[in-house]
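Example 3.2
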Amino acid sequence: MKKSLRFMVLFLLAWVTTSVSAGEYSYEFSNKVFTGEGTKTLGSIDWTIQVPGKIFWGFAKNKGQQIGSAGKPAQTVTLSTTGITQQVSKIVVETSGARDISATLEVSVGGNAYATSDGNAYHLTKESTEATFTGSAAGEIKLVYSNSEPLKAIYIKAIKVYYGEGESGGEIEPKPEEIASVASIAELNALKDGQVAALYLSDEANARVTFAHDKYIYLRDNTGAVCLYNIDKKMTYNQHVAGYITGKKTVIGNMPAFTASPTTNAYMLIAADPVTEPNVEPIETTAAAMSEHYADWVTIKNVKMSDGQQGQDATGTVNVANTFNVSEYADIQSGKEYDFFGIVNSTADSNLNLSLIHNVAYKRTGNPAADMQADFLPLTPTGIHQMNMEQNKNIIVYDLMGRRISPSQMTKGVYIINGKKYVK
């Protein structure tokens, strides 16, 4: 197995080296990279940002890196690089602004202005849109934003540069990317931010999907948990995952993530279907210990809510977030106690949240049988009691739809017995 892994890493390293000089550079912001003026490595190229004054820095999932806000706006923004020395034919910037934005973007290479389809400047809108600039020059690449009243937030989601061989025969000059090989989620999470890695998960690692939503896949193995972000692989709750995948170790706020990069491939990562193991379930923790479970599915019990978003258990404060739009979130009432179930998440500003989730384990055919059905709710009031089936074999039970259920047919979920709710 190690021999196969070494071969895979060498193959991927050769592929990365080749693809870097293939005529296209691209980078997508998956978290807040810039927190002030200075230079950051975006992919394999160093970019420098200059923004006069004290402004707000942030990140929005659908819009990317945020520069400025209505309260702390950026009047001008210059993002530049000298990392590409070949002749550039086209630059595509996916960008946007806040509502009622009145800002423009201009692009130049080596001091030569590049043109859009209707002029040299692109006018930002509130929707994230690709702005295309074309020309033929080599030298420093500059993206210059000019903001005017009303000053609003500017967002950059992605940058693509298309280049070819210029008169000097120059080439893109990235730092060589070393691919780290890791064999567990804990080893992956221990890597430095921005490190490209090949992650190998054996069957024995017991890597399971705890939740999947849009571009986010949350994975737990025997050693820890991580968020797979923007990986081109469809997965669903409960699946057992094994094999290889390449990507870049990043963080979203403080939450570890494995993000798609130009070298990412997931074709050797296998998700078992059908699932044959028992259902993966949440880990019980407390408010004080939440930071030990980033990207994992947990339950925190007996949380008394002070409002619709924040509550306290016996150890501290829990921020409850509706990141994944679960309908049950609307049922939360101030002053009541709940058991919550969700993913330990982090905002771009490193705020710790419990993002509520609703998982369903469906009836299985074959192995194992239908007793693996379960409905894992995002919250239950603490007035719902645990059921002791050994003491309640002959009771009359109804489900939440009012249908009578035989105790022998009950799966995990909430039931009504003698007018009271119980959870199994």
